[in-house]
Amino acid sequence: xxxxxxxxxxxxxxxxxxxxxxxxxxxxxxxxxxxxxxxxxxxxxxxxxxxxxxxxxxxxxxxxxxxxxxxxxxxxxxxxxxxxxxxxxxxxxxxxxxxxxxxxxxxxxxxxxxxxxxxxxxxxxxxxxxxxxxxxxxxxxxxxxxxxxxxxxxxxxxxxxxxx
Length: 164
Known about the structure:
2 helices, 59% helix, three-stranded antiparallel β-sheet
């Protein structure tokens, strides 16, 4: 009878240890599943963010190409040696392009008279000026464009410098 009880106790201990081991396994696998699920959620968010960034870069590439056309139209409109109907037609095209740009959130910023900012301006020329402080923008060669707070294309400018 004593032998039978010892055997039963050993079986119970064995079963308790097996149950504890299985519970530990459940906790481990549950933790692994939760980490895998969190990794998947993070991966999806990262892919979504990257896709939005790619779309934005593609949009900016297109806009930069359109800006070149707008610049060429600006030059054509400055030439007053042609008849007025031609200029009116070119002006209408120019307005359509600028309306498209503004509807997409792109705006031209004026730089003349501002202090040179390397984040917004690209200095192409520097001219000695007695009337202006150093690094003041004297002339805008090509306008710059922003979208929100981001500079899409810096303005190309002529800046003042002090006499040497």
